[in-house]
């Protein structure tokens, strides 16, 4: 009797295994994979289309507008440097926090702006240790790293080491994917072009 039960059990297992290998089971698994792939592709296309419709940031009239804030470049001037044999370009800007939480102005600046002079990337500058910068310049630089409450506005500055004889500084503005604008800043001037 054990031999009969064992034989029947073996036959049932074999039939189940063979049923899993039929073309309809394979087609079903393949069909599920294709449906899943189509769903992912569709979601990716929708995400890309939504991203194209809503730009991350815009730049016009020396003003960057992003979802978390705005930066309006208000001027620039050459200032003393903490580094020997260097000068710095101090770029002043008005920052408005348009998010719902505190933001640090320099975070938005460094995310969207790149400074170059004579084709070379510029390095951020530092306040002069000799005290040659005005209190206003010092306040503007300090404001760049101080959190700003939601809905608030502050005057801020960015600073770059420059070569006074290498010509103007170009600020290239990008939105994370592409360049969205440029502005040229003249050395020893108080206005941006």
Automatic annotation (TrEMBL):
Task: Quote the InterPro entries the UniProt record gives.
Answer: DUF5067, Immunoprotect_excell_Ig-like
In residue numbers, the region (Disordered) covers 24-54
Q: Which residues form the DUF5067 domain?
A: 46-175
Recite the UniProt keywords alphabetically: Signal
Composition bias type Polar residues, residue spans: 24-49
According to the lineage, what is the superkingdom? Bacteria
Q: Which interval of the chain is the signal sequence?
A: 1-19
Query: Which Pfam family, just one, is annotated for this protein?
Result: DUF5067
Name-wise, this protein is: DUF5067 domain-containing protein
Q: What is the lineage of its organism?
A: Bacteria, Bacillati, Bacillota, Bacilli, Lactobacillales
């Amino acid at each position: 009797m054990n031999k009969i039960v064992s034989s029947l059990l073996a036959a049932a297992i074999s039939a189940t295994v063979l049923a899993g290998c039929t073309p309809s089971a394979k087609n079903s698994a393949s069909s599920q994979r294709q449906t899943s792939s189509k769903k992912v592709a569709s979601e990716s296309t929708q995400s890309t289309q939504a991203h194209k419709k809503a730009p991350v940031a815009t730049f016009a009239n020396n003003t960057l507008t992003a979802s978390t804030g705005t930066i309006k470049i208000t001027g620039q001037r050459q200032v003393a440097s903490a580094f020997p044999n260097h000068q710095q370009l101090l770029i002043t800007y008005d920052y408005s926090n348009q998010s719902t939480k505190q933001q640090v102005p320099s975070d938005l600046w460094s995310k969207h702006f790149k400074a170059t002079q004579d084709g070379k990337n510029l390095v951020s500058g530092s306040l002069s240790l000799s005290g040659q910068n005005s209190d206003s310049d010092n306040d503007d630089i300090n404001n760049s790293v101080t959190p700003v409450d939601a809905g608030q506005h502050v005057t801020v500055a960015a600073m770059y080491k420059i070569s006074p004889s290498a010509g103007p500084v170009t600020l290239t503005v990008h939105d994370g994917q592409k360049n969205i604008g440029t502005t040229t800043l003249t050395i020893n001037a108080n206005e941006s072009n």
